[in-house]
Amino acid sequence: MSTETIILALLVLAVIIMYNSLISKKNQVDNIFASVDTQLKKRYDLIPNLVATVSKYMEHEKTLLTEVTRLRSEANNPNLSDTHKINLDKKVSSALGSIMVAVENYPDLKANENVMQLQGTLHELEEQISAARRAYNQAVTDYNNAIEMFPTNFMAKAMNYRAKQVFEISHNERQNVNVKELFNS
Amino acid sequence: MKKLSELTDFYYKSLQNPLQSLEKEREQLRHRVLVVGIIYSLFSLVLYFFLFSYSFSDLTIMFLFGYFALGSILYKFLITDYTKEFKEKIIRPLITEISPGLRYFPQKHISQKKFRDSKIFTSKVDRFHGNDFVDGQIDSIALSFSDIHAEQKHKNSKGKESWSTIFQGLFIVADFHKHFKGTTVVLPDIAQNTFGYLIGGWLQSKNISRDELITMDHPEFEKEFVVYGSDQIEARYILSHSLMEKLLNFKKRSKHPIFISFTKDSIHLAVEYNKDLFEPSIFRSLLNYKIAMEYVQTLHLCIGIIDELDLNQKLWTKR
Question: pTM (2 decimals)?
């Protein structure tokens, strides 16, 4: 076998490895995003129940409740892009957070069994969503690194792969919710 | 949970009487051990010269091996009663003082099945023993731990047997406060510390005896540990940022390598000491602060994990 053949074989091998690694990184991102999406849907499904329960008590937060309902119907649109979903998630998280803070102002509501149950489920879901977000961000980081670093960046350009957006991890999430405080408050 | 300083007080104040009487026994025992040791050594020396008359050969090594083996059996036999008494009078009250809900069995240990099911160590275990088993509930969280020594048998090309230690130290099992289905294993990061980030990371990702490599988003944790898991999301659900910080603190406090796994709704922690713990020392005083602190601190560390890792803060769905 001549030297040229060996070099050519090695080059082909390198291209195959780069191609496969990029595909597997992209699939990893897609897989994990699917899990994030499932978790987010579970949270969206909780919203009507939550709104129905708290709206009887909450007088001053009507706009907040309408906003959450609107965001939910927007999220139910089947043709959303991933970036759009990421942005929606941010808005929903902050709106739900505000509702939970507002609940504190209504003693009747705070003591309501149904609300407590909802709070518990929501909290558990938030933890799972947070884990899914972190997994997604890691997968995206690996993917983004691969498409920006030499030599896979040429391959990625040829395959028309673009950098993806990560979820913003809020300061609260890094701090982690103290369950005890949540339930004892 | 009692503080470390309270326990140290308890050790020196409430246990003063048994300590004093044990200390007397220890001095007598030390004397006996020394006398028996000298007689045994002299006898062996005479026997050696009688048998082999000054010639050194392979038999010398065999003889030395026999000398040490028999010697250690003799030593163990001599200190049996004292060890038993020490565990009943010192270790048992200490455990009850930390938490009255715990039971202590000096002769038992964590089962080999539990050790294997933890999936922390993947090597085949050929010899498994341990002692000082503690179990019970604290804040309705099940906790058990014991001393464990797991070994593996090797045979070289000549068919000669040898044993190597897989793990020796404390093995702790406790209920975990979150639901999960798969397995997540957290090990000391040896590869990245030895070979650097790139090569070490590549080696870690090629570890075939483990599940998928999981990169955590906590730089300090990532530097100390390497995480393998069956599910990328579940591993992060278990290892929240606050738990990672708590595990880092636990590692700093224990001052020994720790191996952790989360499987079957439990957390397993293996703290590698490479020695048998909770054993009395014959040649050092029980009143010695360093010796005392070793018993007190180790017990405090094991029983304290429920508080330290917040395992008693159950999630809504697990209430």
Answer: 0.84
